[in-house]
């Protein structure tokens, strides 16, 4: 394992140049963990995280989990590939990435390269640095919604995970859509990260509950809405209930027809988000990842 320490000047934040005039409140997220595997998808997620860190004054903790043992790299951090070339070590690649982040204006950045299970390594690092957010990239060409590492991270992590599609560019979050599923109760603590996002960006909030046509869910929805109202008592929001033959298509239609900078879902044990992160997905659901998706975990 190799760690790259913060910049020697000791700064702990890099103010975004426009933050003072944008109405964005700072230091809501002290530490953002950014998962990288040095692919175009993760590079785009890193660029998104850079802008988010600048806007909020957050520190970036870059994590590169690889499967090649460190001992395989010799001779100044390189190893010979089967075709006779030289492969740079993960540690050197991480250092290059950290230096690029610092040159991009993020002063508070450090990183770690380690080997082993990707999801397990990310979960450990998120806990170690007490990250408030994990940022991960998603490849644009995938037919399923998310790759296996993201799926495992959603299931294992207690830290909110922000999934950034490969072709998405950063914009300040002004319009948030929260999709709720009342199969399990929503606790006040479950929505604390969402409240932070709303406060940080002074964003508007729409809450949607998409149900299957003809389903009798009043016994679940009524207490669920009461609990939701308590959890969001400090905020104004619009609530919409929709009925669709296909719940996934209903969510997609809604976000396509309403301004949406961020879709938020809560990963209950057996709820909608859990189903979305399963092994099979419809084509319509895969389009949900056309913009950033924030997945919260139940407390």
From TrEMBL:
TM segment ranges: none
Domain UspA: start-end pairs: 29-165, 241-297
InterPro entries recorded: Universal_stress_UspA (IPR006015), UspA (IPR006016)
Superkingdom to which the source organism belongs: Bacteria
Region of interest (Disordered), ranges: 1-21
Family in the record: Belongs to the universal stress protein A family.
Annotated protein name in UniProt: Universal stress protein
């Amino acid at each position: 394992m190799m760690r790259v320490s913060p910049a020697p000047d000791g700064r702990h934040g890099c103010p975004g140049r426009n933050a003072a005039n944008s109405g964005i409140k700072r230091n809501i997220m002290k530490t953002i963990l950014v998962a990288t595997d040095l692919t175009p998808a993760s590079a785009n997620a890193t660029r998104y995280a850079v802008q988010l860190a600048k806007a909020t004054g957050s520190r970036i903790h870059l994590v590169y989990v690889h499967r090649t043992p460190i001992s395989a790299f010799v001779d100044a951090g390189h190893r010979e590939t089967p075709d006779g070339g030289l492969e740079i070590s993960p540690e050197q690649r991480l250092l290059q990435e950290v230096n690029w982040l610092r040159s991009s204006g993020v002063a508070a950045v450090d990183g770690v390269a380690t080997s082993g299970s990707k999801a397990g390594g990310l979960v450990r690092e998120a806990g170690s640095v007490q990250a408030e957010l994990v940022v991960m990239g998603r490849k644009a060409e995938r037919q399923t919604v998310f790759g296996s590492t993201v799926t495992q991270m959603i299931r294992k992590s207690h830290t909110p995970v922000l999934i950034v599609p490969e072709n998405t560019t950063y914009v300040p979050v002004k319009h948030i859509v929260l999709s709720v599923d009342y199969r399990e109760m929503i606790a006040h603590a479950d929505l604390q990260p969402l409240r932070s996002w709303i406060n940080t960006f002074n964003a508007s909030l729409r809450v949607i509950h998409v149900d299957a046509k003809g389903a009798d869910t009043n016994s679940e929805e009524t207490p669920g809405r009461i609990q939701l109202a308590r959890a969001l008592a400090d905020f104004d929001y619009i609530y919409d209930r929709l009925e669709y033959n296909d719940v996934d298509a209903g969510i997609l239609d809604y976000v396509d027809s309403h301004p949406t900078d961020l879709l938020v879902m809560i990963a209950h044990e057996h709820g909608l988000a859990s189903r979305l992160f399963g092994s099979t997905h419809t084509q319509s659901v895969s389009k949900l990842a056309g913009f950033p998706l924030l997945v919260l975990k139940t407390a």
